[in-house]
Amino acid sequence: MTLEIGITSIIAGLIGGLFLALIRLYGSGPVPFVAKIYIDVFRSIPLLVLLIVVYYALPFVGIRFSPFVSAVVALTLVSSAYTAEIFRAGIEAIPHGQFEASQALGLSGRHMMIDVILPQAIKIVIPPLTNNCINVLKDTALASVVAMPDLLKQATQAQALSANPTPLIGAALIYVALLWPLVSIVARLEKRFGGEKRS
Amino acid sequence: MSPLIQITNLKKAYGIFTVLHGINLDIAEGEVVCVIGPSGSGKSTLIRCINRLEAFSSDSSIVVDGVTVGPGKALAKVRAEVGMVFQSFNLFPHLTVLKNVMLAPMRVRGTKPADAERKARELLARVGISEQAEKYPGKLSGGQQQRVAIARALAMEPKVMLFDEPTSSLDPEMVGEVLDVMKKLAGTGVTMVVVTHEMGFARQVADRVIFMDGGRIIEQGTPSEIFDNPKEERTRGFLRAVLNH
Ligand SMILES: Nc1ncnc2c1ncn2[C@@H]1O[C@H](COP(=O)(O)OP(=O)(O)OP(=O)(O)O)[C@@H](O)[C@H]1O
Ligand SMILES: [Mg+2]
User: Fold this and answer.
1) Are B192 and B178 in contact (CB under 8 A)?
2) What distance in Å separates the CA atoms of residue A16 and residue A99, rounded to the nearest whole number?
3) Which of A127-131, A194-198, B137-141 has the lowest mean pLDDT?
4) How high is the pLDDT of residue B228?
5) How far apart are CA B192 and CA B67, in angstroms?
6) Which parts of chain A are beta strand (E)?
7) Does B106 contact chain A (CB < 8 Å)?
8) How far apart are the C-alpha atoms of B133 and B140, rounded to whole Å?
9) Contact list, B92 vs chain A (CB under 8 Å)
10) pLDDT at A121
11) Which residues contact B43 (CB under 8 A, 6 or more apart)?
12) CA B47 to ligand 2 center in whole angstroms
């Protein structure tokens, strides 16, 4: 369950974050400002508060999500805010000449982004994005407070039953086992994309 | 026949600082125009207005091949017809040389990959870098990169080529190879507007030389009129300074 919540939130957060970054940078009228407000709010609100709001407060206004959806919604709202800032920084790090060359060639804004800017920005944002992904996975533990049958929660219950800390330690070990390969895969990706400087 | 590029009352300001004071300039099809002048005189700004990399005052007008250069939809059409070569190359570092040249025709003109590749290889041969097609731009020398940039612009088969000091960031031994490519290009009938400090190139290749200072065209004429017989004191002063270097 933890892993499903984490992965769903990460993917939704990546898509939402990229979208937010693009409208913040290139939206017209009040759109960039609204995006900025969203990003600032969801980066500052504690996840626990958001989880409680989504799971316990929204039902009062008639919105009721399953525990799984509640956790994913809360994590995605926050993750996309962080991801948006990461993508924005990545796009802004691309030299201005790349934009000008694309425009001079007649590329549309969409093609400029897809073919020229984002492929270069991705390499820059891989390290911070990975950090963010790991944070999201860690945060899935918090989702247990919204009644998910989460690993740690099951462990706590098991512990209460037997008054024995072994299940809790076991859960912690499983967490590490889940995160460890990810961290090392990420480190390898960073090396691969960061090391091969082509400019 | 109406001129290919028609610039009327071109004004451009950054805040209260006016960079171009109402430039009027017509350029005929096939003409090779070199723009010279001291640093900060507005040469780059002038040619960057032609494809609207710089926005300009709304009471100014630029028409390229019958299409008004404005902020709207027609801009894409203008940019497809106007190629540009930058001082700093601005090649796409994540794409191979070949892909750099193929990209715009495929995306803007809808050219099929096989046709785009054939055309790209042809152009790379023309600028003398066929062997580097599969390399990434970062592995090439400055002179080679700038020749790729020229091929990339030519792949769109533009009517006009704009050059903004294409040799200024090159090591001296590589200037010649880029100028040679440009000379060959000038012989093919494409319209060229070249901002340059290479007076030898301007004298040899230009149909017309334009001297700018302080955001105005001070004097223009054939290379021999400007270089051998400048009428304006400012032109003389500038030429004296650059030719004595
Ligand atoms: N983004 C900008 N903001 C403010 N002023 C600018 C900007 N870009 C250019 N200028 C000013 O406009 C003037 C003309 O600049 P431009 O780059 O067109 O000159 P140039 O003739 O190409 O000079 P150079 O030979 O140094 O390239 C300069 O005084 C420059 O400082
Ligand atoms: Mg300049």
Assistant:
1) no
2) 23
3) A194-198
4) 94
5) 18
6) none
7) no
8) 10
9) 98, 101, 115-116, 120
10) 95
11) B35, B36, B37, B164, B195, B212
12) 9
